[in-house]
Amino acid sequence: MKDQPLLQPIKMGDLELPNRIVMAPMTRSRADNPEKAPTEGLHAIYYKQRASAGLILTEGSQVSKRAVGYIHTPGIHSKAQVEGWKKVTEAVHNSGGRIFIQLWHVGRMSHPDFHNGELPHAPSAVNPESKSFTPEGFKETVTPKEMTQEDIDQTVKDFQNAAKNAMEAGFDGVEIHSSNGYLFHQFFNRTSNDRTDRYGGSIENRARFLFEVINAIKEVMPENRIGLRLNPSLHGIFGMTMDEETIPTFDYIIKKLNEYKLAYLHLSEPFNDVSDVPFAETEIAKRYRPIYEGILMINTNFNQERGNAVIERGEADMVAFGKPYVSNPDLVERFAKKVPLTDWDKDTFYTQGKKGYLDYPANARESEFPVSQ
Predict the structure, then answer these.
(1) Could you give phi then psi for residue 115, rounded to 5 degrees?
(2) What is the sign of the dihedral through the CA atoms of 217, 222, 225 and 230?
(3) pLDDT tens readout for residues 307-346
(4) DSSP E strands, the chain
(5) How does pLDDT run across 33-81, given as a tens digit for each residue?
(6) How far apart (Å, rounded) are the C-alpha atoms in residues 21 and 23?
(7) Are residues 284 and 315 in contact, defined by beta-carbon separation less than 8 angstroms?
(8) Does residue 137 sit in helix, strand or coil?
(9) Residue 310 backbone phi and psi in degrees, to 5
(10) Largest CB tally within 10 Å, which of 40, 173, 223, 304?
(11) Which residue out of 182, 264, 288, 360 is catalytically annotated?
(12) Which architecture does CATH list for 5-323?
């Protein structure tokens, strides 16, 4: 069934991908060890099971201790974490797959419980008035510490060091998580950034931190192994709201990204209904396909039919699937054979252990379903 657009190969930089089905980055909270390191007995198996994807994007992985904001999420800033990720990349590569790690800093969405009582860092001292998932359960967010120039410089170095660690761990590339209300997005948005220095005020200033990080990372790895994720119409989540400068800010960022030769740009369609939100863009792929000159990846609530259609229309080159990949490690094979998907168990999304993580069947790989004609 190679006639499906999703199953067509694509060249991404110097990587040859056998299909356009991407495993989206998804927090799964299985690094429940003191080192916050991925393990051979859980993470390596989990990602290996899904190695038939054209590309795997890992769960968000914090670039420093300061970047953490959720329980049991793996990092990429220590030797133990690098060694743990090596087991993952070896397992995926031995199964013929390709894998990028998502580099993550949650900014103000963290909590003092993660930082020995110290405040989380953010562009400005603005409380998102949300919830943080701490070791003691959900707690109200706090007013964060506004980052100094020294803090910003150190965070740029943290991302650069994380990218170096990713290469040492054997990853094929990295994705910068500049999306979904986390640190970079907090710099972009006037709701969360009221700075008056070179990182605040104008659109160019609010985008400056992102481009400083990209420039630092490309010093230690090829540009065509760097991906980037953005969510232009995020609204009403993590204290983020849209205004008249929101979409123009993303227009500026995405146009400027054409100056780089990145692996891809990963965009999200709106997470919720924004049709009545002033200034929102309801069709992200359609808006940005004419603007972005490189490979465009799209996600959010796509199924097989919609995924094939968005590529067929020329609005995207690749499609990232999240929840379907939780419960269907053989998603590529199921799409190829046009067989039903296994439902996911949302109660085990963020629990620990193998249940709801390693125990979903991969029946389509075992020829239990006939190929549709």
Answers:
(1) -130, 35
(2) positive
(3) 999 999 999 999 999 999 999 999 999 999 999 999 999 9
(4) 10-12, 15-17, 21-23, 55-62, 99-104, 121-122, 131-134, 137-140, 145-146, 173-177, 226-230, 264-268, 296-299, 318-321
(5) 999 999 999 999 999 999 999 999 999 999 999 999 999 999 999 999 9
(6) 7
(7) no
(8) strand
(9) -70, -30
(10) 173
(11) 182
(12) Alpha-Beta Barrel (3.20)
Q: Letter for the amino acid at 311?
A: I
Report d(CA 225, CA 220) in Å as an integer. Answer: 11
What are the backbone angles phi and psi of residue 276, rounded to the nearest 5°? -105, 10
pLDDT band at 366 (very low <50, low <70, confident <90, very high): confident
Residue 372: per-residue pLDDT: 39
The amino acid occupying position 94 is: N
Nearest to 302 by CA among 322, 284, 288: 322
Contact call for residues 71 and 29 (beta carbons, < 8 A): yes
Distances (CA, A) of 171 to 37, 85, 256, 361: 15, 8, 26, 26
Q: Within 10 A of 371 (CB to CB), how many other CB atoms are there?
A: 12
- DSSP characters over 21-89: EEEPP-------STT----TTTHHHHHHHTTTSSEEEEEEEESSGGG--STT--BSSSHHHHHHHHHHH
Task: Collect all residues with Cβ–Cβ distance below 8 Å to 119 and sequence separation of at least 6.
Answer: 112, 142, 143, 144, 145
Q: 11-39 burial, b for 16+ CB within 10 Å, e for fewer?
A: ebbebebbbbbbbbbbbbbbbeeeebbbb
Q: How far apart are CA 119 and CA 111, in angstroms?
A: 7
Q: Which residues have a Cβ under 8 Å from the Cβ of 271 and sit 6 or more positions away?
A: 231, 234, 237, 300
Q: Where are the alpha helices (DSSP H) in 95-202?
A: 149-168, 183-188
Q: Are strands 137-140 and 131-134 parallel, antiparallel or unpaired?
A: antiparallel
- Return the closest-CA partner of residue 49 out of 307, 358, 266: 358
* Residues 186 and 193: beta-carbon distance below 8 Å: yes
Residues ≥6 apart with Cβ < 8 Å to 26: 59, 322, 323, 325, 326, 349
Domain ranges of the chain: 5-323
Q: Cα(354)–Cα(360) distance, rounded to whole angstroms? A: 10
